[in-house]
Amino acid sequence: MNNRKIAFCIVLFMGTMSCGNAQPPNVIMLMADDLGWGDVGFNGNENIITPNLDTMAESGIRFTHFYAAAPLCSPTRASVLTGRSPFRQGIFAAHTGGMRPAEKTIAEVLKKEGYSTGFFGKWHLGWLEPDKVESRGIFSPPWHHGYDETFATKSAMPTWNPTKTPIGWKGWNHKGVPNSSPDKPWGSPYIENGKRVTENLDGDDSRVIMDRAIPFIEKSINEEKPFLATIWFHTPHEPVVAGPEYLAMYPNLSEEQKHFYGCITAMDEQIGRLKQFLNEKGIAENTILLFCSDNGPADPQVRSGAASAGPFRGHKHHMWEGGLRVPSLIEWPGHVDAGTTIDYQACTSDYFPTILDMLDIPVPKNVPLDGISLVPMLNGESTQREVPFAAGYQRLYKNTELYAFVDGQYKICNPEVGMDMMLFDLEADPTESKNLAEEMPELFAKMNAKLEAIKRSWRLSREGNDYQW
After folding, report:
1. Which of 86, 262, 393, 436 allows an S-S link to 246, with CB 3.0 to 4.6 Å?
2. What is the CATH number that goes with domain 6-378?
3. What confidence tens digit (pLDDT) does each residue in 419-457 have?
4. Cβ burial, residue 133 (10 Å; 0-12/13-18/19+)
């Protein structure tokens, strides 16, 4: 395309054809942080206030079987941008590395096609300040990976007043400084186009992010360029804090639930603000909007009763469904059937090939991908995923090395540290209550062999097989 307007055609979800001379579609990738499957209204939570996400579900596609590539943040984010398992990239967990320069990202591909590219929010795929050396990770900012405009943080931020440590917070990033002052600076700053930001950082963090994303989109519109906007919220990752107006929306809940639900509602409000802007500018029907979470809900919020994995077992850091299965939506007015619920198994690695297929851009052939294009499924040409997918999580802490492999209705996984590999029938037993490994030994052995083959392929990739050094 190379910055020129083209005739764009796509087969719609129900098999009809729509063609026209128009600017290539815009793409917005939205991601929440630690949002559980059951933490949104469109998945049945009757207490949470998420009207804009619920409207997206009513006007687009809701996935019931959408998986993260890992049960925690950094690896999943790497899969979204590249279509490749994080194990191919050496990104096994959070804070343990950074995205390698040789990885081809969706931003790099679309930039070559004439798109404006912007990143806003939580990066978590490398340091953002070259001279700030830390014990873990490497300098690998989003502007090294195809993004023109950036407003990013290295990792998590408080969800209210993001540059200030919440009163009473004693977790990571505490640094041993007394918690009595609301003005104690947070350890990870916002970096905009390589420089620290000091203005417009108070209040709701999702609003702070959207205040930078919308001007980028408006600039792209004014320049008559298609755009890729990657907007990755910190919500509802801890420290979880909601502002007074959002706390007031939940008068009958516990204090922790008020903050947890309140910050999600604040994020939802900003998604509504974005959608209203797209409508006002007349580009909503030419914009592909994708939403998901990076993993299941965090253990502390699950134990307190604030967060929910819905009916599924487990949480973040687990290979149970509750750690991997996340809320997910696709909205593209006029191009996908409104109010469609799909049980097709999809995952975060599918974003890269799906977006390129939607835009009629060839997928790079020089490296193996783990994701598949979902366009055949959206067109009604495919009703069941034919390519199995695997997830993983590894770190030195407690000698953690966990895997899950899903092939149709069956799944094998060693879901927690210290547990053996198990076999489950997700169709008959979505809560993973009955281990079938002994009852179905041949299937169990076959699936383990397939997983081992995938792991060998992953190792070859990360040890240099895919890269030109």
Report:
1. 262
2. 3.40.720.10
3. 999 999 999 999 999 999 999 999 999 999 999 999 999
4. exposed
